[in-house]
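Priority: medium. Attachment 1 of 2:
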């Protein structure tokens, strides 16, 4: 599966690999795709593992584990319609742990597996060496691949420092939960600077000025949206500076813009906005230098790049302008386009209270 490259109009660049974090004492996000499972751990070492496979219909297994000694796993099964426990099959056969599937409470297809962490671990232990979890019999029954589950559990244990403890998902041992490192604290949200909006005349003047002064950037990025049809914007950052967005590429379901910071009073060249997110892109920090479905309001800048029109994959980010710089508030990413809910992408960065 592919997610958008911010510089590619067809959004077809290869998925960038994100490096694994050290133990939970370091608040470095983790993103790893392992066979049919993806693991994402954010800057608080809260981990989410999702098992899904290509094809329809499917089951989606979702495991969420908070970091720290008291973090307990929560496991759910997602499908188009609720599944009866008696219908679950592991590699074609009934298995005792299917009784841990909780009855549905409504028409939604999200069901909890197990009532506590011990039951979740028991279910995972029962299925982790299997290959296929199916709701019914036959090829047409909704199914989830278990390929990669054991490695996903091990990665969570390593990231959260659970190896050898009674709380481990895979390699449990005699060490007490107290040996698990505390969860790193999320940063406080940035208090954004909110400036009065520009009037139409100033906004138009700033866009025209940046179009002229940033012509080399536009040519270098092979922007194909013509200026007279582009959705360009200008927004006040404060009394002295503005943010200008020049639309560069446009596709069937989204467009991307180059962003510039510019003095409102005239002197000085515009500065291209490039923002780094705390993950790795082929061994280097990922830099977003073109912003998709860009939005700005109340001092908040947003980027929402869909991997395809269904929005079952992609990345999104929000930054707050603090009067000097843009500070990352939220970052979400999912590299696979495998039919999940639109915009339901794992979290890799959060601030306190999210």
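Attachment 2 of 2:
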């Amino acid at each position: 599966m592919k997610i958008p490259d911010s510089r590619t109009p067809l959004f077809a660049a290869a998925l960038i690999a994100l490096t694994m974090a050290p133990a939970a004492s370091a608040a470095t996000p983790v993103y790893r795709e392992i066979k049919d499972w993806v693991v994402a751990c954010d800057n608080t070492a809260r981990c989410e593992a999702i098992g899904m496979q290509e094809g329809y219909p499917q089951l989606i297994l979702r495991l969420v584990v908070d970091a720290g000694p008291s973090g307990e796993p929560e496991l759910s099964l997602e499908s188009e319609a609720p599944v009866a426990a008696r219908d679950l099959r592991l590699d074609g056969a009934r298995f005792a742990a299917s009784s841990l599937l909780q009855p549905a409470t409504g028409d939604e297809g999200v069901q909890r597996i197990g009532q506590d962490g011990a039951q979740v671990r028991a279910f995972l232990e029962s299925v982790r060496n299997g290959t296929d979890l199916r709701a019914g019999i036959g090829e047409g029954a909704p199914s989830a691949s278990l390929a990669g589950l054991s490695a996903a559990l091990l990665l969570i244990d390593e990231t959260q420092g659970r190896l050898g403890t009674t709380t481990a998902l895979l390699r449990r041992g005699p060490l007490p939960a107290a040996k698990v490192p505390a969860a790193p604290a999320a940063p406080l949200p940035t208090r954004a600077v909110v400036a009065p909006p520009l009037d139409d005349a100033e906004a138009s003047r700033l866009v025209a000025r940046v179009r002229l002064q940033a012509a080399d950037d536009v040519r270098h990025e092979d922007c194909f949206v013509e200026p007279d049809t582009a959705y360009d914007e200008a927004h006040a950052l404060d009394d002295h500076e503005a943010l200008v967005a020049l639309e560069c590429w446009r596709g069937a379901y989204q467009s991307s813009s180059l962003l510039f910071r510019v003095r409102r009073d005239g002197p000085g060249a515009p500065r291209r906005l490039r923002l780094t997110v705390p993950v790795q892109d082929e061994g280097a920090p990922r830099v977003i230098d073109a912003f998709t479905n860009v939005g700005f309001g109340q001092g908040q800048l947003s980027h929402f790049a869909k991997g395809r029109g269904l929005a079952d994959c992609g990345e999104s980010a929000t930054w707050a302008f603090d009067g000097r710089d843009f500070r990352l508030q939220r970052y979400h990413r999912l590299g696979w386009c495998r039919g999940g809910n639109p915009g339901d992408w794992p979290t890799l960065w959060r601030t306190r209270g999210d």
